[in-house]
Amino acid sequence: MIVAEHLTKRYGGRTAVDDVSFTVEPGRVTGFLGPNGAGKSTTMRMVVGLDRPTSGRVTVDGRAYADSPAPLQEVGALLEARAVHPGRSARSHLRALAATHGIGDARVDEVVAMTGLSAVARRRVGGFSLGMGQRLGIAAALLGDPRVLVLDEPVNGLDPEGVRWVRQTVRHLADEGRTVFISSHLMSEMAITADDLVVIGRGRVVAQGPVRDVVGGVGGASVLVRSPRAGELGSLLERSGARLERRDDGALVVRGPDAAAVGDLAAGAGIAVHELTPQQSSLEDAFMTLTADAVEYATSPSPPAGPHGSGPRPAGPGRPDEEARA
Ligand SMILES: Nc1ncnc2c1ncn2[C@@H]1O[C@H](COP(=O)(O)OP(=O)(O)OP(=O)(O)O)[C@@H](O)[C@H]1O
Predict the structure, then answer these.
(1) How far, in Å, from the CA of 97 to the mean position of ligand 1?
(2) Which of 31, 49, 205, 234 could form a disulfide with 190 if both were Cys (CB 3.0 to 4.6 A apart)?
(3) ipTM of the complex
(4) Which segments carry the region annotation Disordered (predicted)?
(5) Are 204 and 163 members of one domain?
């Protein structure tokens, strides 16, 4: 399990990660979503001890990564800018890494096979495509058979087969009871890969929880209703407390009651209904709404209260967006 508590990272005057708290549970795939520069990589680097928090703390299975006696066996990480000697073969790179952790060659051959690198394992890493490099990075992360995996944008540069392979691999690893924390900016991919989400915008957590709750909490579920007496039905629904959007084509988008409740209300009033369709906003919509909120709050002089309870919170003031890294 990964537990981050009030994790904050400042680089000079810039706050990259701002009072971030979340839990990544074992046996589940947790997606870490956010736009470019939101603070995902910085957070992940702090999880594996490559960056020190300015304040707050993060523990992996109860202790700071730096205190771990056998880090590779506890946490497997794929992070950006992995240093691999270009002249080495994939196999010798993995062997060298394994040797420093007392891991035998048999395990190297195992992860090479698991990651689909067998055919290219003796080739120089310098000639690898981006996708092959990603597979090699994942192979290195799996080397120590760790309980916890931290993968920063693992599907970056992979072809569709590779993307599917990552999805199946992380699912399998989570099903074995491991903790899997995986960052991505691909919402659609996370919708089918992750069980839980931590969504970050401008260094702050704007939502977290099971995928369905995060998506449902933003604009959330609605019911599309068509009726020849839409005006009358609309008034009736509003009087019962529903929130309503009247579309130009005459349809009503109803929030609050579910489809059954809308249908019952219409039936009770003897109003015919020609369509009654439950709708879920997509993860993409949810993400746009959540991260747009974060941007709005950052530029608003007196930010409004978050519309989703303890979910979205104001981002820190005046932080410049997307500047070059120091
Ligand atoms: N070493 C550093 N020195 C100064 N600023 C940094 C450093 N590392 C990151 N930042 C800044 O911190 C913020 C968060 O960056 P980070 O790379 O964590 O975001 P990200 O969500 O991983 O983005 P991306 O998807 O683009 O990689 C950015 O504004 C970035 O420029």
Answers:
(1) 27
(2) 31
(3) 0.95
(4) 294-326
(5) yes
